[in-house]
Design brief:
This is GNAT family N-acetyltransferase. The chain has three helices and seven strands; from the N terminus they run αββββαβαββ. The protein has 134 residues and is of the alpha+beta class. The termini are far apart.
Length: 134
């Protein structure tokens, strides 16, 4: 039930911000679920992990931005998404915002700290949402 409410909140945010209705494609997995959004001005893939089991050094209850590309105002739109997560996602138990294999340098825009350094440059970054300054 909580996951459905979370998706409804996320869809409402996307509708209010971008005008897209019911844009979230949701895929369940053992750790939680993933959301894929592919619209004209927006291409996102975000993991909502309740349990990481140490993979990638992600903390439990992490929202992991794998891909978040906005055609207009990339930096400001990413910060707005982070503000939405910071305000609404703690009520669903999520406490951390992270990036995975951050080739796009989202961590610089959001002020995230290195949590896992990979041999092949696929570094992961994260920060407690309460500490986000967006």
């Amino acid at each position: 039930m909580e996951q459905n409410d979370l998706i409804l909140d996320f869809n409402l945010y996307l509708c209010e911000k971008f005008g897209y209705r019911n844009s979230c494609s949701v895929m369940q997995n053992a750790n939680g679920f993933c959301v894929d959004i592919r619209e004209r001005d927006l291409d996102c893939y975000i993991r909502f992990w309740e349990y990481s089991e140490g993979r990638g050094n992600f903390p439990d209850w992490s929202i992991i931005i794998v891909r978040s590309n906005f055609k207009k105002n990339q930096a400001e739109s990413l910060k707005d998404l982070a503000r939405f997560f910071k305000e609404y996602m703690p009520r669903y138990g999520y406490r951390y915002l992270c990036t995975e294999g951050d080739d796009y340098k989202y961590y610089q825009i959001l002020g995230l700290k290195l949590i896992h350094q990979d041999l092949f440059g696929q570094d992961n970054y994260g920060l407690a949402m309460k500490d986000l300054n967006v």
